[in-house]
Design goal:
The protein is an alpha/beta fold and 574 residues long. Among the domains are: 31-225 and 243-276, Rossmann fold (3-Layer(aba) Sandwich); 460-573, GMP Synthetase, Chain A, domain 3. It is 30% helix and 24% strand. It has an eight-stranded mixed sheet, with helices on both faces. Strand 21 and strand 22 form a beta hairpin. The longest helix has 17 residues, at 61-77.
C-alpha cells in the first residue's frame, strides 16, 4: 500500500485512490502484443479448463483456440487481411468470440454492429468502414436483408444461434440455410487448407470497433486498439476483481458495447474464468441462467438486480457472487442498502459493487474495492487511471467535493472516433502537460478518499420556460431519498405545449401510492428549489423499462405519458 502523504486538494495530483492498491498493482506492466496473444498466453498451460458455457455445452480453452484458428483461416480464405474491417452483427454466442479473436490474430478489425440501429444507421456504419464481409446470426438476418444491397458487403456468413450445439439440435430447431449467404460451417470448411499470416504487432493497432448509441446525433464508431484493450485487461483483472481460474462470469451485457465484449468478455477469459453466454436480452431468461449456473461475477443494470431480488428461487444463488456489480447508471443509498440486505440475508457477506466507465475507454475506469465501497459511490479509479472533475465554464480542475465535468486519463482510451476527427477533438482535451483527458460529459466529483461520485449526464437536463437549466438527476436523487421509492427516472416530456419533467417511479407497494407521493412532495419541497419540484408521476409495476443496451429506456419513457399522476390535481381533490 502507498504511504499517506499531504494532500494538495486536487485529485489528479494527489491520486488518493492509490492507497488502496498494492505496489504490484500500481507498477503492473501493460502487455505489448495483440489481445489474442494476451488471452492465449494466459491460458496456454490450462487448455483443459472450460472457457465458454453455452446452453449447457462446455467449450474448453483448447477447443476455443482451435476454433479461433479455423475461423482465422476461413476469414483469410475470403480475402480478409491485416487492416481490413469485418462487420459482425452477433450477440453473445461462441462464434462471436471466435470471430473477434480470429480477426485480431490476423490483424483485422472486428466492427461490432448494434442490431437496434435503424436501417439507415446500419447502412452508414457498414459503408463507412468499407467492410466486404458480414457475419450475422440467422435470427438477426431479417434486420439486414434489405440493408446489405446498399452496402459494401460482398459476402455474408450466416450462423444460427444453436450452431455450437451440434447437428441434432439444428435439426430439432429446424435450422434452414439462408439464400445468398454462406453457412458458418461451410465458411469454416472453405478455409481448411489456408495458411494464416500473423502480422508484426504495432502499438495502438485497431482491434474492435463499437458504436455510440446515436441518441444525441449520428452514432460514432469508437475505434478501440490492442493497446487500450490490453490495458483494460490489466486494469480490470486480478488487482480489481481478484479473478481465479474456473470461476464463472455471466456475460449478459450485449457484446456490441465495449463493456460487454471487453470488461465482461475478453477480460475474464484472459484469467481462465468461464464465460456463461446468453444471446437473448431478457430478464426472465437471465433469472433461469443465474439459477442454473450460479455465477461468481456479473455486471448488470439495477433493473435486473431488482428483478432477481423479487424471485425467491434465486435466493440460493446470491451467496455465489464474488462480485455482483452495477454500471451505466447511478444508484441511491436506499436502493443499494436493499440490495446489500438481500445479499447478506442470503448468505453473502460481500456488498454490491459499483463501477463507472464509457465505451471510449474500453468500459470500466472505476470500481469499488472491498475496502472502499461507500454507499452510492461509483468506485475509485483503477490502478493506471486518473479521474477528476472540471469546472463547466472555466475548464479548471475542481478540488475535492466540487462538482464538475468528470474527465479521465486512461491507457485504455480509444484511438478516436472512426473517420471523425472533429468529434474526436471534442472528446479529448490535451492539457498544458500533454495529458490527454477523455471528456465524459458526466457531472460528478471526487472525494479526499479518491471515491468518484457521478451525478448524471450533463445533457440529462432541459431548459425551462424561465431559461433555467434543470438537471434531472438532482430531482431523481431527491425523490429516491424516500425509502418506499425503489426506482426513479426523471424525464423531460413535451406536455400541453411545454417541456416539463415527469418522474417515472417504481414503489415498493402501490397500495399506499398517495401517502408515499405526499412524503416525496414534502421532502422535495425542503430539498429542491421551486423549478425542480416534481408534480407529474408515471408509475411502473415491477421495474423501469430497459433498452437492449441494458440501460434505462429513456426514449420509451419520454413518450410514455399516459395515465400520469398529477399531484396538483390530486391536491385539489383533497
Amino acid at each position: 500500500m502507498e504511504t499517506e502523504k499531504e494532500l494538495t486538494g486536487y485529485p489528479s495530483i494527489d491520486k488518493p485512490w492509490l492507497k488502496y492498491y498494492t505496489e504490484e498493482a500500481i507498477n503492473a506492466s501493460l502487455p505489448d502484443c495483440t489481445v489474442y496473444e494476451t488471452i492465449y498466453n494466459g491460458n496456454k498451460d490450462y487448455l483443459d479448463d472450460i472457457a465458454l458455457m453455452y446452453f449447457g455445452k462446455k467449450i474448453s480453452y483448447k477447443t476455443m483456440f482451435e476454433q479461433i484458428d479455423k475461423t482465422a483461416k476461413a476469414f483469410t480464405a475470403l480475402g480478409v487481411k491485416t487492416g481490413d474491417n469485418v462487420a459482425l452483427c452477433m450477440p453473445a454466442i461462441p462464434e462471436t468470440i471466435y470471430s473477434v479473436l480470429a480477426l485480431n490474430k490476423i490483424g483485422a478489425n472486428a466492427n461490432m454492429l448494434n442490431p437496434t440501429f435503424t436501417a439507415e444507421q446500419l447502412t452508414d456504419r457498414i459503408n463507412d468502414t468499407g467492410a466486404s464481409v458480414l457475419v450475422v446470426i440467422n435470427e438477426l438476418y431479417n434486420l439486414l436483408e434489405t440493408v446489405i444491397p446498399n452496402t459494401s458487403i460482398k459476402t455474408v456468413v450466416a450462423c444460427p444461434a444453436v450452431n455450437s450445439l451440434g447437428a441434432f439440435v439444428k435439426i430439432a430447431k429446424k435450422v434452414k440455410p439462408i439464400p445468398n449467404t454462406i453457412s458458418w460451417n461451410d465458411f469454416i470448411k472453405n478455409g481448411k487448407a489456408e495458411t494464416i499470416t500473423i502480422p508484426p504487432y504495432e502499438t495502438n493497432s485497431p482491434a474492435i470497433m463499437v458504436y455510440s448509441s446515436g441518441t444525441t446525433g449520428a452514432s460514432k464508431g469508437i475505434q478501440l486498439t490492442n493497446t487500450g484493450i490490453n490495458a483494460s485487461i490489466v486494469e480490470c483483472g486480478p488487482y480489481t476483481y481478484g479473478f481465479k481460474r474456473k470461476e464463472r462470469y455471466f456475460l449478459q451485457i450485449p457484446v456490441w458495447f465495449s463493456t460487454g465484449i471487453i470488461t465482461t468478455g475478453l477480460v475474464p477469459l484472459c484469467y481462465g474464468v468461464c464465460l456463461i453466454l446468453e444471446p437473448i436480452y431478457d430478464f426472465n431468461i437471465f433469472e433461469k441462467e443465474i439459477a442454473k449456473y450460479k455465477p461468481n461475477y456479473m455486471i448488470t443494470a439495477t433493473g435486473l438486480v431488482n428483478h432477481i431480488m423479487t424471485k425467491p428461487h434465486l435466493s440460493s444463488s446470491a451467496k455465489y457472487f464474488k462480485c455482483l456489480a452495477i454500471g451505466g447508471e447511478g444508484i441511491t443509498e436506499n436502493a443499494e442498502k436493499r440490495i446489500n440486505e438481500w445479499l447478506n440475508k442470503n448468505g453473502n457477506s460481500l456488498n454490491l459493487r459499483k463501477g463507472y466507465g464509457m465505451c471510449e475507454c474500453c468500459g470500466a475506469v472505476t470500481n469499488t474495492e472491498l475496502n472502499c465501497n461507500p454507499l452510492s459511490c461509483s468506485g475509485i479509479p483503477t490502478p493506471h487511471v486518473t479521474v477528476s472533475a472540471f469546472d463547466l465554464e472555466t475548464g479548471e480542475e475542481q478540488k475535492y467535493g466540487e462538482r464538475g465535468e468528470i474527465r479521465v486519463l486512461s491507457p485504455c482510451r480509444m484511438l478516436g472516433y472512426y473517420k471523425n476527427s472533429k468529434e474526436t477533438d471534442k472528446y479529448f482535451h490535451t492539457d498544458e502537460k500533454g495529458n490527454v483527458w477523455a471528456c465524459t460529459g458526466d457531472m460528478g466529483y471526487v472525494t479526499e478518499d479518491g471515491c468518484v461520485y457521478v451525478s448524471g449526464r450533463i445533457n440529462d437536463s432541459y431548459i425551462n420556460e424561465q431559461n433555467e437549466t434543470i438537471y434531472l438527476f438532482d430531482i431523481e436523487r431527491a425523490v429516491l431519498d424516500i425509502p418506499q421509492v425503489r426506482q426513479c427516472k426523471a424525464v423531460a416530456s413535451y406536455i400541453d405545449g411545454k417541456t416539463v419533467h415527469v418522474c417515472h417511479i417504481v414503489l415498493d407497494s402501490l397500495s399506499n401510492k398517495s401517502e408515499i407521493i405526499r412524503k416525496v412532495t414534502a421532502h422535495c419541497a425542503e430539498k429542491l428549489i421551486d423549478s425542480y419540484q416534481p408534480y407529474l408521476y408515471r408509475f411502473h409495476d415491477d421495474a423501469l423499462p430497459v433498452a437492449s443496451s441494458g440501460k434505462l429506456d429513456i426514449i420509451n419513457m419520454r413518450e410514455d405519458i399516459e395515465n400520469l399522476f398529477d399531484i396538483r390535481v390530486e391536491s385539489k381533490k383533497q
